[in-house]
Amino acid sequence: MTYLVAVTGKGGTGKTTVAAILTRLLLEGGVRPVLAVDADPNSTLAPFLGLPAGPTISDIREEVLKEKGTVTGIPKERILDMKLEECIQEADGFDLLTMGRPEGPTCYCYVNSLVRGAMSALKGNYRVTVVDNEAGMEHLSRMNTDAIDCLVIVCEPTAASARAAQRITELAAGLPVNVRRKVLVWNKAPESGVPEAAADRLRAGAFDESVTLPADAAVARLSNEEQSVFQTKMSEPFARLLDVCVKGL
Q: Domain 3-56+87-108+125-245 classified CATH 3.40.50.300?
C-alpha cells in the first residue's frame, strides 16, 4: 500500500514548491517509484518537476461522460483505464498525474466513481504518493483513500497565513479519511525565526511536528521562474522535510 503525503496551504505559501522538493528528496533517498499528483486546479506542479504540461483527469472525465454505453464494443470502464494511462507522465523514478479542474454543475456521479476506482488501483503501484492539493482538499475525495499518512500544511510566518493553516486543520478533521499525522511547514522564514504573532495563532497540539524553512533565494527563484527542483541546490534545512514528513518506510 502506498504511503500518502498530502501537501496543502493557503495560495502563495509555496505548497507546490514543497511538494516538488519532497518528490526530489524521496528519489534522492532511494524511495522509488513515487507518484506525484497535481490536485490543484491551477495545475503548476509539472514545470517544478521538469515536465511539460500534460493531459488531465478532468479532460478524461469530460470525454468519458460524453460517451454512451460502449464505444466500438469497448466498455466505458476500459476506455477510462486506457485514457488514464495516457494522462500519466513518466519520468526517472517518478510519474506525474494531473487532476485538473473540479467538477462543474453536470452530474458526474458515475464517471467520478470510475475515476476513484482507477485512482485507487493506480496509486497501489507506488511506494509513496505526494499530492499537491488546493487549500480546500476536495480533490482528496477522488483518490478513494481511507487514510492520509501525513498532511503537510505549508504556512508563511505571518499571522494571516497561520490563521489559514489553523482553518485547514479544521477542514481536515471533517474529511471522511483518517489523517495519521499533521506537519506544519513554516516557509520563507526570516533569519530571526517565526514571529510570535504568527506562532500564537495556531492552536497548541494542532500539529505532530513542524519544520522551519528559510527564505532561500534559490528556492524563491523556483517559484518565480517555474524552474525544475532537480536543477537547484537547496540548503540543509530542506533535507529535514523528508525525515519529518515520511516516516516508517
A: yes
